[in-house]
Give the backbone structure.
Amino acid sequence: MDLKAHLDTRTPLIDCALDRFLPRATTKPRTIHEAMRYSLFAGGKRLRPALTLAAAKACGGTEEHALPAACAVECIHTYSLVHDDLPCMDDDDLRRGRPTSHKVYGEGVAVLAGDALLTIAFEILAQARETARYKMPALIRELATASGSQWLIGGQVADLEGEGKKISGAELKYIHRCKTAALLTASIRLGAMSANATPARLAALTEFGQALGLAFQVIDDILDVTQTTEKLGKTAGKDVAATKATYPAVFGLDRSRKEAHRLTTAAHAALKPFGKNGATLRAFADYLLARDY
Ligand code: GRG
């Protein structure tokens, strides 16, 4: 299956839904709505929402019912990038091939645009359809936990505190699980929940998400040292410059590549119960392993 072609067809669907969920750029106060849209419609790969849709379909659900959750995770993801790029965090000028939010709107509005994207994620998720097994509190808890102080934010804290220090492989995995794999896993789980997945299917997709999420970050670390800024659309070599804990820094490039392959195989294995219905998710794992940006 050609996953690039699949993503090219899913992106307009996701963009159209995001456009509907967000206030118009002309809504007062204009600046915040322009800034939210500037970062959200900057050409991100839309991997997380596409995974939500694919997980829903793998569990026999529809993309239509999964769209609010898909848009909610993309808003959380974009907020995390806007805040990560701030001078007080990673201090980056380039994201998704364009100047970062604070470069265009100033730091104050960039902080608020991130806050507003985080908040609107829950407003959007609240419009999702409940199912027999998964009521609204479970959906809200899923997204809040993955984005909270023990996962996404916790990972960012550990990452900040690890800068310039020599950290262990175990600590590095902890950071990657929290900062990257948790939101990816929640994206997949929310898709499954929108389809009223059985607990066994949800557990299998959780395993898939954890392996895929970790593989995704290992590959991201590899690309940071092997690709150019133009190709990545963000500043290459940033991790090395910031003496960040990354897979290549801790394990070397060769072992990192092997680990990405091992995790991709584990992701495939988790999909076994889905048979043919797991084809799109399987293709995601292959695509992320082979990606070069
Ligand atoms: C500020 C709470 C807070 C968290 C920041 C997102 C993040 C945590 C840090 C950014 C750097 C980083 C390595 C994040 C891990 C996740 C990751 C690789 C994000 C990039 O995801 P892509 O490649 O980006 O899917 P696009 O732009 O295509 O959506």
